[in-house]
Amino acid sequence: MSGVTAPEADSLVTLAYVSAAELWDTLTGAELIRAIGEGKFPQVTDVSDYIGQVIVGAEPGRVELAWTPDVKLCNPGGTVHGGFIATILDNAVCLAASSLGDVFVPQLTLNLNIDYLRAVQAGETYRVIGTVTHAGRSRTVSAATLFDARDRACAAATASVTGNQIFARDRKSADGA
Question: Is residue 29 part of a domain?
């Protein structure tokens, strides 16, 4: 037993929820992405954990991810399946676009074009860089590249994304105003 009573545990859960809600409403897109990477804000979905994605850094218009694909992501030929490569590239282009916002708004992919350049191996760590090419009012064009440990491009993507308006909101100041 941890020595925490049920009412205390409920209070801790409530405090964590309030803290996450405050971060959600007060941090910029890039700041919230960094908070997720630092473990200060929960992952939005379990996809990142499943595919082996880690957020390394974010600034407005740019994100860096580390990706170590597991053998469960391999095709029958023994290399990482192209659909999972597409997933990590899609995450990078969407996070790059989200990093521009006054608040974090998840993105919806309108178009994703991928060039597969080299085989991707399970168990190796790759670097994924996502950058914004053009930020319009309703659509953002982004690019992402997957690099191996020797800094060779293994796959590259371009995409058009748009903010998921279900999550649109105004940024609040840290004091709640």
Answer: yes
Strand partners, 107: 163
For residue 70, give its domain range. 6-165
What's the burial of 12, exposed, middle or buried (CB within 10 Å: 0-12/13-18/19+)? Answer: exposed
Do residues 68 and 124 lie in contact, with contact meaning Cβ atoms separated by under 8 Å? Answer: yes
What is the DSSP annotation of 106-139?
-EEEEEEEEEE-S---TT--EEEEEEEEEE-SS-
List the single range of 6-15, 142-151, 157-166 with lowest mean pLDDT: 6-15
Residue 74 DSSP symbol: B
Domain count, the chain: 1
Residue 75 has a CB neighbour count (10 Å cut-off) of 11
pTM: 0.86
Q: Give the domain CATH number at 141.
A: 3.10.129.10
Using a pLDDT cut of 70, give the percent of the chain over it: 86
